[in-house]
Specification:
Pfam families: Exo_endo_phos. The protein is an alpha+beta fold. It is built from seven helices and twelve strands. The protein is globular and about 50 Å long.
């Protein structure tokens, strides 16, 4: 099964690019982040006519996540249990944002996640980011404790560079989010809960997944590795190959993120549903 994750930075703007990507790489499941639209405005028909089932969570023009699957889409969840909410005003209702959607696709429990950015270290959004990640860790722990052999896959834009080499210049990020120890500890906690980051082993030569639009970052390859696929042990053992589609990032009108693709050898059980 070929599974990809991609922060598209507006699904309506890049629907054609998404369709071309799915067709070009024969993707079975695509996790999408930052769709930037409400449910009623997502371009479902564009992908359904290609044979994909679609689950989307979007409340307005910010955030938004989706799953596109041609191998089934069962037991859809529009958030994970106890998913924290956020409002800038601490006295206001802390409303849940459109940052997680899960479903079972071809026997794999898949989540598309758009982890909060954090903004600045002193911002309430940074604390929200950490709460969000640790709550997610708790859910992973509970899931794998109940079913140690589960094929579970968390993927998306994690807005964390777990290692110094995952940014073009770690000195540039001093005093900024994405590289702080609390963020990295939260990412590591997901791995300690039983997940393995499966993309790095295939993408050391093309390690970055995001390049800011400003300052000519892409042309200078001043990027960050912040998009990942985290798989449970039973699924991580099936990871056979993968790549970052840097060429997709280089095109006119591209998202500032590149798709991250992994192939999983799942055997005859998967062949029967494909």
């Amino acid at each position: 099964m070929r599974i990809a994750t991609w922060n598209v930075n507006s699904a309506r703007t890049r629907a054609d690019r998404m369709a071309d990507f799915l067709r070009r790489h024969e993707v079975d499941v695509l996790a999408v982040q930052e769709t930037k639209c409400s449910d009623e405005k997502f371009p479902y028909a564009r992908f359904e006519e290609m044979g994909y089932q679609v689950a989307h969570v979007g409340y307005h023009q910010w955030n938004g996540v989706a799953l596109l699957s041609r191998v089934g889409l069962k037991d859809v969840r529009t958030h994970f249990a106890h998913q924290p909410g956020f409002a800038k005003d601490p006295a206001a209702e802390q409303a849940r944002e459109a940052r997680a959607v899960g479903a079972t696709c071809g026997g794999v429990r898949v989540w598309s996640l758009y982890v909060p950015n954090g903004r600045e270290i002193a911002d309430r959004h940074y604390d929200y980011k950490l709460r969000w990640l640790w709550t997610l860790r708790d859910q992973v722990t509970e899931h794998l404790a109940a079913d140690p052999g589960a094929r579970l896959l968390l993927m998306g834009d994690f807005n964390i560079a777990p290692r110094d080499e995952d940014v073009w210049d770690v000195g540039f990020f001093e005093g900024r989010t994405h590289v702080t120890e609390p963020e990295r500890a939260a990412f590591q906690a997901l791995e300690e809960a039983g997940l393995r980051e499966v993309t790095r082993q295939f993408t050391e030569q093309t390690r970055y997944t995001y390049w800011d639009y400003t300052a000519g970052r892409f042309g200078k390859n001043e990027g960050m590795r912040i998009d990942f696929q985290l798989a449970s042990g039973a699924l991580a053992d099936c990871a056979a190959s993968g790549f970052v589609d840097v060429e997709e990032r280089s095109g006119k009108g591209a998202s500032d993120h590149a798709p991250v693709v992994v192939d999983y050898r799942l055997g005859p059980d998967f062949d029967s549903v494909r």
